[in-house]
Amino acid sequence: MGGEEERLRRWRLALGGAAAEGAMEGGLETVLEGADARMDAALSALYDEHERRGAGLGASAPRVARWLGDIREHFPAGVVQVMQKDAIERLDLTRLLLEPEMLEAVEPDVHLVGTLLSLNRLMPERARESARAVVRTVVRELEARLTRRTLAAVSGALDRTARTHRPRRAAEVDWDRTIRANLGNYLPERGTVVPSRLVGYARGQRGVRRDVVLAVDQSGSMAASVVYAGVFAAVLASMRALRTSLVAFDTAVVDLTDQLRDPVEVLFGTQLGGGTDVNRAVAYCQSLVTRPADTILLLVSDLFEGGPREEMLRRIAAMTAAGVQVIVLLALSDDGAPQYDHENAAALAALGVPAFACTPDAFPELMAAAIERRSYDQCRMTRPGR
């Protein structure tokens, strides 16, 4: 295919049918055939306004299933996921996702899981197992991507916080801290530091060393955050050195801690949508705190408070004054800058409580920093990366 012909082909696919017709009057004219024509038809069914007023995808499950098959054939997985998300939102296909044949045709991803969870209470029994299979596939992919790094980061942080001045083996000596602690013993003539005091890691400590409470907002805008938080909570719950609790809330509060052995059950225990009462959730989390100085509260919420705002702020201020480390995640997802209540975020910042978005890939580092009570780069936490 010549350079000019290829350029016209690309413009035709980019502009779509209606826009291309107008451009043809200015000399842009090309005919799509074969795979290009099928690709153009799949794009037009979703994005072409004329097509949507006419045939489009319609409300037919078989037609939508064929369309899903077409886009999986002609586009890479990442593009397929974006087109599926757009189709659900633009063409209102949520009802069709209750059909088992539809669930077998879709490309599983985090946003699809969020949509299925929002439909959980409406889902007929015949579609429920298909939905569980989709959720299970996504959860396994997330676990494969995130578990090892989370366990390594958190375990390392726990080891570093357990200091001893009587390390038994050389491998247990924290040489960086030992050298800094003994700089006054530097011998210039020998060019060395004489360590009169060793600082080491107290490895092998038994028992629970940190309490972690994840409180997750179930409002519809937080769907992806709910999915990631459920997976991370299950990973953290597998660590004996942590006592992990998971609380999901809207205007009510549900404790999902006893389901953390299976993140799929955790996710199906949530109920996306509805209002938000952050204060009620914070009050419940406050009742879980028995060791304030060793407790980390991660509040995953966009902070659009439907409950008593001042009471919520007073509760969080009381918890931080008692020694609880409170961190607000405005989003836990790869979706970019979230919508959130700026006034509440600023009020929390004035209390010394950080509020920022965090990508899933940055979450292990955030947990490690929280355990060690050290600072972290909030800007880097929001930067997508794999």
TrEMBL record:
This is VWA domain-containing protein. Gene3D superfamilies: von Willebrand factor, type A domain. It comes from Microbispora cellulosiformans.
